UniProtKB/TrEMBL annotation:
Coiled coil: none annotated. This is Sugar ABC transporter substrate-binding protein. It comes from the Bacteria. Keywords: Signal. Residues 1-20 form the signal peptide. SUPFAM superfamilies: Periplasmic binding protein-like II. The lineage of its organism: Bacteria, Bacillati, Actinomycetota, Actinomycetes, Kitasatosporales. The keyword Signal applies.
Length: 88
């Protein structure tokens, strides 16, 4: 149970960090938008597809931000994929 809690907490923190990184640091709130946005969220944590569904039905729909879940392996396999994606 402890391992699941730690994994879930890490997934939530990574998700929050990812979404925060998408924010704008500009004070100019001109309302200019480039249109709908699609994001792919890599996760190994169970149940994150349900969290994403809630996002897509609520704030995501309002802000035209659609998130798609792509389940990944955990451990070394995930780390390798993340490092490879970062280099690309």
């Amino acid at each position: 149970k402890h391992r699941r809690l730690v994994s879930s907490s890490m997934a939530v923190m990574l998700g929050a960090t990812t979404l925060a990184a998408c924010g704008s640091s500009s004070d100019d709130d001109s309302g200019a938008r480039s249109g709908p946005v699609s994001l792919t969220y890599w996760t190994w944590a169970p149940g994150m597809d349900k969290v994403v569904d809630l996002w897509n039905e609520g704030p995501g729909k309002k802000e035209q931000i659609k998130v798609t879940v792509k389940k990944q392996a955990s451990g070394d396999t995930l780390v390798t994929k993340i490092l490879t994606a970062h280099k690309a």
